[in-house]
């Protein structure tokens, strides 16, 4: 319970410092995290990326569920939260800039990745920055790869339909605030 409260306090503190990049006053709830990871085939996952890791709600599942041969790459812009993640979930690759996803996976010797999870607050970003990240995501995914993104509105659907062959939308009402999940297939 202490860790849960500590995560909420840290998240709120970082939101106050940088609301444009943190995007919410509270971390995602476990119910949202479970809905995000539900379609992932962990046994056949060789590489997984997380964008906007925050306090590690999704990182925790990546750390626990990926097998030893699966490469985990975590992007978090906030230095304080990224340092905390690095200490908590050792053995994953950490980077700061989500817009560098494609060059980073190439630097790590991967051509493309199997799955990308994202909690980035795209509604807060200029469209050019959104395009840069989403183009990087599309280029980084293998054919048949999965991009899973949550947002608090449906405003991204058209952008995603331009980049992915199939986009399904889920809804998690028991999150604060309630969230939509985009399951995007390349």
What is the fold's blueprint, element by element?
Layout: H1 2-17, H2 19-22, H3 30-37, E1 47-51, H4 57-65, E2 71-75, H5 79-88, E3 93-95, H6 101-107, E4 113-118, H7 127-140, E5 141-151, H8 157-161, E6 166-172, E7 179-185
Parallel strand pairs: 1-2, 1-4, 2-3, 4-5
Antiparallel strand pairs: 5-7, 6-7
- How far apart the termini lie comes to 39 Å
* Percent strand: 15-25%
DSSP summary: helix tally: 8
Largest sheet: 7 strands, mixed
Strands ordered across the widest β-sheet: 3-2-1-4-5-7-6
Radius of gyration from the CA trace?
A: 15 Å
Shape: globular
Low-confidence stretches: 1-5, 19-25
Our count of domains comes out at 1
Share in helix: 25-40%
Keywords:
Rossmann fold, 24% strand, disordered N terminus, 8 helices, 7-stranded mixed sheet, single chain, alpha/beta, 186 residues
Task: Provide structural commentary.
- The model is unreliable at 1-5 and 19-25 (pLDDT under 50).
- The radius of gyration is 15 Å and the shape is globular.
- It has one domain: Vaccinia Virus protein VP39 (Rossmann fold, 3-Layer(aba) Sandwich), CATH 3.40.50.
- Strands 3-2-1-4-5-7-6 form a seven-stranded mixed beta sheet, sandwiched between helices.
- It has 186 residues and is an alpha/beta fold.
- The longest helix is centred in the N-terminal third of the chain and has 16 residues, at 2-17.
- It has eight helices and seven strands, in the order αααβαβαβαβαβαββ.
- A hairpin with a 6-residue loop joins β6 (166-172) and β7 (179-185).
């Amino acid at each position: 319970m202490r860790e849960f409260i500590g995560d909420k306090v840290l998240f709120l503190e970082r939101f106050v410092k940088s609301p444009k990049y943190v995007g919410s006053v509270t971390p995602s709830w476990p119910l949202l995290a479970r809905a995000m990871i539900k379609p992932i085939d962990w046994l056949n996952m060789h590489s997984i990326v997380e964008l906007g890791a925050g306090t590690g709600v999704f990182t925790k599942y990546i750390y626990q569920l990926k097998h030893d041969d699966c490469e985990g790459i975590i992007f978090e812009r906030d230095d304080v939260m990224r340092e905390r993640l690095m200490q908590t979930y050792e053995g994953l690759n950490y980077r700061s800039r989500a817009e560098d996803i494609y060059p980073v996976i190439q630097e790590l010797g991967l051509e493309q990745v199997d799955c990308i999870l994202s909690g980035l607050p795209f509604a807060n970003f200029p469209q050019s920055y959104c395009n840069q990240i989403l183009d990087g995501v599309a280029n980084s995914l293998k054919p048949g790869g999965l991009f899973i993104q949550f947002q608090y509105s449906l405003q991204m659907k058209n952008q995603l339909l331009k980049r992915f062959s199939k986009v399904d939308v889920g809804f998690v009402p028991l999150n604060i605030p309630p969230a939509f999940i985009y399951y995007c297939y390349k």
